[in-house]
Every structure is written in structure tokens, then in C-alpha cells.
Design goal:
Number of domains: 3
Number of helices: 18
Number of strands: 17
CATH superfamily of the largest domain: Type I PLP-dependent aspartate aminotransferase-like (Major domain)
Helix content: 25-40%
Radius of gyration: 26 Å
Distance between the termini: 34 Å
Structural class: alpha/beta
CATH class of the largest domain: Alpha Beta
Oligomer: single chain
Strand content: 15-25%
Largest sheet: 7 strands, mixed
CATH architecture of the largest domain: 3-Layer(aba) Sandwich
Length: 441
């Protein structure tokens, strides 16, 4: 390779071992072809082969699907304060488990527990790497080897085939189903309580709704029964939130504080959905129960690292000033964005997209209904506006938008390619790359 200077820039960019690997592949590919070795052609071949390795596989995209918290596209966008806190934690040693005052070992939960207690009214709090882990840990710590009662109408399945019956099995406890799919009464819970009962569990149906002839038991009804029987009540809020979304004209979603005030003993919810922070599973509740949960061996396996703890603490700190959340928290800002404002953006971008498509399709502005996503408020939709693309070969056109330097992800529905602009967070970057759209590739 010393005699082939054309390879030097490639070696500088990706390293000598990978270039040698590519050269060997080039030799094998050309073996028996009779082609004369050409330095420039070889360098180009190797560069093309290594192009994918030189770029990150996880790339920035424009999420114009109409789903604000899109699981496949990373859910919540972090606030600038959380990004800065995470970057600081990545660059330096931190007081992750160190008590500066005493000069001794500290506890990593101390970075987020005071904020969670303040914001929910709970006696104690801890955190793990996601809400599924939180549910698993609670059940393993409080109910292993015993029974947990759950309404049949709350036996949820979320993305990735996560099912409550399966997680109970993994946690080592036994599921006792009560009621029916559409109706469960307090007497159903009462009749199921026995000597092997360890807890009663409520699961918020955050990604579906049962309508019509229905009945469910509220925490206000369930807690007195559980207290009388000496049993804890666990509630999985799923997406979960720390503020009343009605503040911004959105439908009500149960908050963690409401669950604690209703007497629920342990509440679990997500950090990276409606809360707008990093991926995390948050657990709040009674001191004695959270203490048992925190000491369980699974807690160490599921704990958060310093980077996510830093981002989570910074996010929680923003909730200390609720009126400013809409300015500082991207998730709240996107959810609360007025449809009229989205339409103004669509009017600016319509001619840009039309020009980029060069007559290959018809474009128009249309009202659409988007989703919050990630299992939050599945029935309630967000009024928005989208650029609607119609014509032949919509899959080809959608692929062309995905090939842009910052891929643009829309959705195809009813013979139309929609780009919902509610979540467009960088209009200038979107416009700047439209001249690179190649619909014929």
C-alpha cells in the first residue's frame, strides 16, 4: 500500500486494518477477471465498500410521520439542558456514587429521587433502564413465588410483544385474572384474594381503549380493599406524565401524583415518553416498598448509567417550573403546537417540495390527525397539517426522501404520501437539502 498514495486518504479516515480488509476483498473480487490492477479504481472500490463503516448507523432524521413520540425513531427529544448535562457526564468523572460532604460512597438514586418525590408526592423513588424493567423489578421484589391479581381488561401487550402475563412469569409470580375483558368489579378482586396473594396490580391501558358496556375499578375503590387485606397496590401507568396535559389543551392522562394521592403503593412509568426525558423506568411510592425494590439483586442489573441519570435529573428539574415547560421541553412543545402554526409552515414549504419533485407528483396542503404515540392517549388525535403527495410510485418517492442527507420519514396512507409538519424542528435544514432530492434513482 505504500506505493499506492491514492489509498492514503482512506487510511487516514477509517484506519489501516479496515483498508487492508477491503483490499483483500478487492483482490478476491478481481481474481480471474484478467483486469489490470489500477490504483485509482482500487481506491474507489475500497472507499465504496467502506463507506458504510465510516458513517454512523444511527442517523438523524426528520420525523414527519404524524406520530410525535415514535418508538422506531427514538421517542422523546431531549431538552437542551438534558443534552448539556449528559455531555458533561460523558466528558468527566462525576459524583455518580460519591458523597462530596462525607468523602465516602454515595447512592446513584440520590440524583433523581428528591425530584421525583417533590413532583409526585411519593415517600421514595428509584429508577431503572425502562418501564418494562420497572414492572419486572417490582413484581420480582414484592411478589416472587406468590400471586398477583390483575383485571382481564388490563392484561396489556405493548410493542415488542411485552405482555403482562409473560413479565409476571419472568418475575416468578403467578397471575390471577379477575373480571372479564370489558367489565371488572370490586367484588371480583375481593373474591380472588387468598393466602397466596402478594399484591393487586392495576395496569393503565395506555395503548388501547375499551368502549361501550364497560366497568373498571378505580384506585379510590381498590385501595381500601387492599388496605383491609394488608396488600400493596401496584399501578403501571405505562407512558405516564408528571403534569396535567389539559394545561395545553390536550386530553387528560393520569399523572403519577394522582396515583400516589389515590393511595397507590408503588407507581411505575416511563421517562422517555410523555415526560420528555431519556429512556428510563421510574418507580415512586411508599418508603418501605421502594426500599425493598432498591435492594433486590435485579436492581443492579437494570440500573441507569451516569449519562442517563444526568439527563433525567436535568429533565426533572425543568418540571419545577411548569409554565415554562412548553418553551424548554421539546415533547411538550410539539404536542401543544397549534395546528394553525403548523399550517403556516406548510404554506412556506409547499412550493419548495413541489419544485424538488419536478412535476413527478401532485402536492397539496391537507388537514390531518396525528398521534401522540408510544402508548399515550391512543384514541385522542392531534389536529395538524401535512404536505400531501399524490402520484404514481409513492414507494419510490418515499424512498427518495429517505435518501436525503437528513432522511425525511413520512407515511403512506390511502394512496397518499403524507409529511405531517407538527414535529418539524429545523425548517432551514429541511429546505436546504431539497435540491438534493433525486426521484429517479
Amino acid at each position: 500500500m505504500a506505493g499506492w498514495p491514492a489509498l492514503t486518504p482512506l487510511i487516514t479516515r477509517v484506519g489501516r486494518p479496515l483498508v487492508i480488509e477491503a483490499l483483500r476483498a478487492w483482490v478476491e473480487a478481481k481474481r480471474g477477471t484478467g483486469e489490470v490492477a489500477d490504483e485509482t479504481a482500487c481506491a474507489g472500490w475500497c472507499a465504496a465498500r467502506l463507506a458504510g463503516l465510516a458513517e454512523p448507523s444511527q442517523r438523524r432524521v426528520f420525523n414527519l410521520t404524524g406520530t410525535v413520540l415514535h418508538t422506531n425513531l427514538g421517542r422523546a427529544l431531549l431538552a437542551e439542558e438534558a443534552i448539556a448535562a449528559a455531555a458533561t457526564a460523558m466528558r468527566s468523572p462525576t459524583t455518580l456514587e460519591y458523597d462530596l460532604l462525607g468523602g465516602a460512597r454515595g447512592e446513584r438514586d440520590d440524583h433523581i429521587a428528591p425530584w421525583l418525590k417533590r413532583l409526585t408526592g411519593a415517600e421514595a423513588a428509584t429508577a431503572v433502564n425502562n418501564n418494562a424493567a420497572a414492572v419486572l423489578l417490582v413484581l420480582a421484589a414484592l411478589a416472587a413465588g406468590r400471586e398477583v391479581i390483575v383485571s382481564r381488561g388490563e392484561l396489556i401487550e405493548i410493542g415488542g410483544a411485552f405482555r403482562i402475563p409473560d413479565i409476571m412469569k419472568q418475575a416468578g409470580c403467578r397471575l390471577v385474572e379477575v373480571g372479564t375483558t370489558n367489565r371488572t368489579h370490586l367484588k371480583d378482586y375481593a373474591a380472588a384474594i387468598g393466602p397466596e396473594t402478594a399484591a393487586i396490580m392495576k395496569v393503565h391501558p395506555s395503548n388501547y381503549a375499551i368502549a361501550g358496556f364497560t366497568k373498571s375499578v378505580t384506585a379510590a375503590e381498590l385501595v381500601p380493599l387492599a388496605r383491609d387485606k394488608g396488600l400493596p397496590v401496584i399501578e403501571d401507568l405505562g407512558s405516564g406524565t408528571l403534569v396535567d396535559l389539559e394545561t395545553w389543551g390536550l386530553p387528560h392522562e393520569p399523572t403519577a401524583r394522582e396515583a400516589i394521592e389515590a393511595g397507590i403503593d408503588v407507581v411505575t412509568f416511563s421517562g422517555d415518553k410523555l415526560l420528555g426525558g431519556p429512556q428510563a423506568g421510574l418507580l415512586v411510592g411508599r418508603q418501605e416498598l421502594i426500599g425493598r425494590i432498591a435492594k433486590h439483586p435485579l436492581k443492579r442489573a437494570l440500573r441507569l448509567d451516569k449519562v442517563r441519570l444526568a439527563a433525567l435529573e436535568a429533565t426533572l428539574r425543568l418540571y419545577g417550573d411548569p409554565p415554562r415547560l412548553i418553551e424548554r421541553l421539546p415533547t411538550v412543545r410539539a404536542l401543544a403546537r397549534p395546528a394553525a402554526e403548523v399550517r403556516v409552515v406548510a404554506e412556506r414549504l409547499l412550493p419548495v417540495v413541489a419544485t424538488a419533485l419536478s412535476g413527478e407528483a401532485r402536492v397539496a396542503i391537507e388537514p390531518v390527525r396525528g398521534q401522540i404515540g408510544s402508548g399515550a392517549l391512543p384514541v385522542d388525535l392531534l389536529a395538524s397539517f401535512a404536505i400531501a403527495v399524490r402520484g404514481k410510485g409513492l414507494d419510490r418517492l418515499a424512498a427518495a426522501f429517505r435518501r436525503l442527507p437528513i432522511p425525511v420519514i413520512g407515511r403512506i396512507s390511502d394512496g397518499t404520501l403524507y409529511f405531517d409538519l407538527r414535529t418539524l424542528d429545523d425548517e432551514a435544514a429541511f429546505v436546504a437539502q431539497m435540491d438534493k432530492l433525486d426521484v429517479m434513482a
